[in-house]
Amino acid sequence: MSDERHEEFRGGFPFVGGRLWLDLLNTVVSDGVRSCDLIDMPGGPETWQEAAAISGLVAENGSARLTELRELLRPAVELFRGREALPADLVDRINRLLGEVSLRSRLTLEDGLPRLVSWIDPGAAGPAGAVAEDFARFVCEAEPERLKHCANPACSLVFYDSGKNNARRWCSMSVCGNRDKVARYRARRRGSLSD
Fold first, then answer.
1. Which residue among 2, 61, 82, 161 has the highest number of C-beta atoms inside a 10 angstrom radius?
2. Which CATH number belongs to the domain containing residue 73 in this structure?
3. Entry pTM
4. Cβ-contact 112, 125 below 8 angstroms
């Protein structure tokens, strides 16, 4: 359980979305009353990029580009879930970032056999390019019914349910799922004590 929780939260940021672009959206957390922008804290952008394993990417105005992209992508969750068309300005912005991204390939030998290894190089787009590439791939390949909000009404996190049964309800079983279990247990105890 502690290993699972460690993987879900790195550098003080939730990484429960299952995709880089969702993890970027989840850098604004809300309890239904207040919201907190985790990237807007001292060292926030650099810490998030390191925790997201994209810290080697550098871009001019990288932090501003990330937060701008995050706000641009936020409405895409409901549009994608509702199978609605993405706005042209969103597609244009993603395409501008993708224009700065390169596909890199290298021929390697594994056990004497040739293998082509390819990866995305965000180039001048930096971290925002990595997020844009992840988003573009997601909207082309993912299943809308698997993009979910946490079942905890006080939680603002979103995630992609990649489980076989598409039954995931919580952003994190160790946080929101556990809170629900404790609340249901206490309600049962109160009910049995009043009988």
1. 161
2. 1.10.3300.10
3. 0.82
4. no
